[in-house]
Design a protein that fits this description.
TIM Barrel, alpha/beta
Length: 251
């Protein structure tokens, strides 16, 4: 088990607040720089078709101005592929996208979309952009990632975050099994969506999860306690969960 687990901070909803009034403030690039200074290992930004939060100029600025890797979340469309190839982010995470949804509601159907996804993955990889697929912890979807040649999967934790009691434990077990299977078939495994201070620990403790991507919660809490302190607190919770898991294994 790797002791250190990377934290990617999603800054989409800084842009949501900016767009509510128009203008330039608050600035997502400033938030990204603050996140890096507070310990984020990377910055995630989702450029949606309807530009409801992150806009094209934000991606341009982030590509030029942040020191840590940029993870561009994108739908598998010709428009988004062109933008990714223009800016060459460190990574591109392909996500499902429906215009009417408030937020991403589930994982990508990679298994059912091989024909559409294959040329997108191939062109991103040819441009030396690391490809990730945002999927459910389902062996069929993980096998599809291997077939597509995507080296990374990000497991959807939104359902886990919404459930309680035994139902949440059952979903956690599914994610644990999915992460183990991903490692078995040679995929690097990330996880994200809906993670908070209260529920991050069990996900952070999963042996083969190398990175967590967290955004909406951190930006929301930053209103009350500042972005710097919220990221540092999340970082500490992740580190403690990893340390406890390592301790349990060696005991």
């Amino acid at each position: 088990m790797a002791k250190y687990q990377r934290l990617g901070v999603n800054i989409d909803h800084v842009a949501t607040i900016r767009n509510a009034r128009g203008g330039l403030y608050p600035d997502p690039v400033r938030a990204a720089k603050m996140a890096v200074a507070a310990g984020a290992d990377g910055i995630t930004a989702h450029l949606r078709e309807d530009r409801r939060h992150i806009r094209d100029e934000d991606i341009h600025a982030l590509s030029r101005e942040i020191s840590q890797p940029l993870n561009l979340e994108m739908a598998a469309t010709d428009e988004m592929l062109t933008i990714a190839l223009r800016h060459s982010p460190h990574a591109a995470c392909i996500v499902p996208e429906k215009r009417e949804e408030r937020t991403t509601e589930g994982g990508l159907d990679a298994a059912g979309g091989l024909k559409q996804l294959t040329p997108v993955v191939e062109r991103l990889r040819a441009a030396d952009i690391r490809v990730s697929l945002f999927v459910e912890a389902d062996p069929r979807q993980l096998d599809a990632a291997v077939t597509l040649g995507a080296p990374v999967v990000e497991l959807h934790t939104g359902r886990y975050a919404e459930l309680v009691g035994q139902a949440q434990q059952d979903e956690l077990d599914r994610i644990i099994d999915g992460a183990a299977y991903a490692a078995q078939i040679g995929l690097e495994c990330h996880a994200g969506h809906g993670l908070t201070f209260d529920n991050v620990g069990p996900i952070a403790a999963i042996e083969s999860v190398a990175e967590l991507n967290i955004g909406h919660f951190l930006i929301g809490e930053a209103i009350f306690g500042g972005l710097d302190s919220m990221i540092k607190r999340m970082r500490a919770l992740m580190d403690n969960a990893r340390a406890n898991a390592l301790g349990a294994r060696s005991a």
